[in-house]
Automatic annotation (TrEMBL):
Enzyme Commission code: 1.2.1.11
HAMAP family the UniProt entry points to: ASADH
Domain Semialdehyde dehydrogenase NAD-binding: 2-115
Keyword NADP in record: yes
Protein name: Aspartate-semialdehyde dehydrogenase
Gene name in the database record: asd
Record keyword Ligase present: no
Catalyzed chemical reaction(s): L-aspartate 4-semialdehyde + phosphate + NADP(+) = 4-phospho-L-aspartate + NADPH + H(+)
Record's keyword terms, sorted: Amino-acid biosynthesis, Diaminopimelate biosynthesis, Lysine biosynthesis, Methionine biosynthesis, NADP, Oxidoreductase, Threonine biosynthesis
Quaternary structure note: Homodimer.
Family statement: Belongs to the aspartate-semialdehyde dehydrogenase family.
Amino-acid positions noted as binding phosphate in the UniProt annotation, renumbered to this chain: 95
Record organism: Deinococcus koreensis
Pfam families on file: Semialdhyde_dh (PF01118), Semialdhyde_dhC (PF02774)
């Protein structure tokens, strides 16, 4: 099996290489990025591999993990799969296309099997939320879901992290922080603005949580509202989530349910200072869930807090898990050589 990464030099590309090395069984890796990086060398499994310019035609790989942005995927993904490979796309280019499955393997892995060459990897905030919310929905029925997010700068890629570090240094040295990546200076600030504002007053990032939760869980009757906020951390998104349920649940029942749910680590002992945080969730494959308590607003409802490494579960890990799922199910097509 041959795997390709498009966007290998980016923040998610870097994580894809780490996750591939630790999880997937395959024979060969191809690395692609923009012409800026062509010829640069990256190390994988002790070997140096050369980064090539992203092809504008078929890619000779069984699995193509794409993380070079929506416009690149939109323009080229259909060409890449002409050799019979499958694209697992990290951008939002195809997520709302009815022909394209949007997959979180712990929740709707089987949807990946109906792909027609492209599978979409969800928005990072949604992927992290549904790992915790989908098991609760299956058992107790979620009627309403209110989400407030605390999103790391790496959600905007390597350049987001660079801006946080560089501008923090500028500010600590007494200078005036500027901004290019974010709508305002990010050091010592929080910014309730991620992606473009829509006509309804929500941002696109917030609406992604609505649309994608519906598509992944497969139930568009759930009422979802999100406020998405950028905070000055490097990686891992956190989310405060309030759920109204069809059938009332106690915190103990939710704790017990999540403790046996795939992809979740229950970290919930406030008296001992144990709750989800970017500090502890960064680098972890599981999403931390804690602060599980009875809602004071919805009778029998639940409040919880999650932290998930959005470069991993929100991006690279989820994409590799989709590839693993296809491999396990024998669903990777016999590829023509191109
Ligand atoms: P490059 O490093 O050569 O610019 P991030 O999300 O961290 O900003 O990373 C984006 C990734 O997508 C990088 O690997 C970047 O390559 C790649 N990329 C950006 N634009 C293009 C493009 N037009 N064609 C192919 N790859 C691209």
């Amino acid at each position: 099996m041959r795997v390709a990464i498009v966007g290998a030099t980016g923040a998610v590309g870097h994580e894809l290489m780490q996750v591939l090395e630790s999880r997937l069984k395959f024979d060969e890796l191809l690395l692609y990025a923009s012409p800026r990086s062509a010829g640069s060398r990256l190390t994988f499994g002790g070997q140096e591999l050369t980064v090539q310019v992203t092809p504008e035609g078929p890619i000779d790989a069984d699995v193509i993990l794409a993380s070079a942005g929506g416009s690149v995927s939109k323009a080229l993904a259909h060409r890449w799969i002409e050799g019979g490979g499958v694209v697992i796309d990290n951008s939002s280019a195809f997520r709302y296309d009815a022909q394209v499955p949007l997959v979180v393997p712990e929740v709707n892995g089987e949807a990946a099997l109906s792909h027609r060459g492209i599978i979409a990897n969800p928005n990072c905030t949604t992927a992290i939320a549904v790992v915790a919310v989908a098991p609760i929905h299956r058992e107790y029925g979620v009627k309403r879901m209110i989400v407030s997010t605390y999103q790391a700068t790496s959600g905007a890629g390597q350049k987001g992290m660079d801006e946080l570090l560089e501008q923090t240094r500028v500010q600590l040295e007494g200078g005036q922080a500027t901004h290019e990546v974010f709508a305002h200076p990010i050091p010592f600030n929080v910014i309730p603005h991620i992606d473009a504002f829509q006509d309804n007053g929500y941002t696109k990032e917030e609406m992604k949580v609505v649309w994608e939760t519906h598509k992944i869980i497969g139930d568009s009757s759930i009422r979802v509202s999100c406020t998405a906020v950028r905070i000055p951390t490097l990686r891992t998104h956190s989310e405060a989530i309030t759920l109204e349920l069809e059938r009332p649940a106690t915190p103990a029942q939710i704790r017990e349910l999540l403790a046996r749910s795939a992809g979740v680590e229950v970290r919930d002992d406030p008296a001992a200072g144990l709750y989800p945080m970017p500090l502890t969730a960064s680098g972890k494959y599981d999403v931390e869930v804690g602060r599980i308590r009875e809602s004071l607003v919805f009778d029998g409802g639940i409040d919880l807090f999650v932290s998930g490494d959005q470069l991993l579960k929100g991006a690279a890990l989820n994409a590799v898990q989709i590839a693993e799922y296809l491999q396990e199910k024998g669903a990777l097509k016999e590829r023509q050589r191109v």
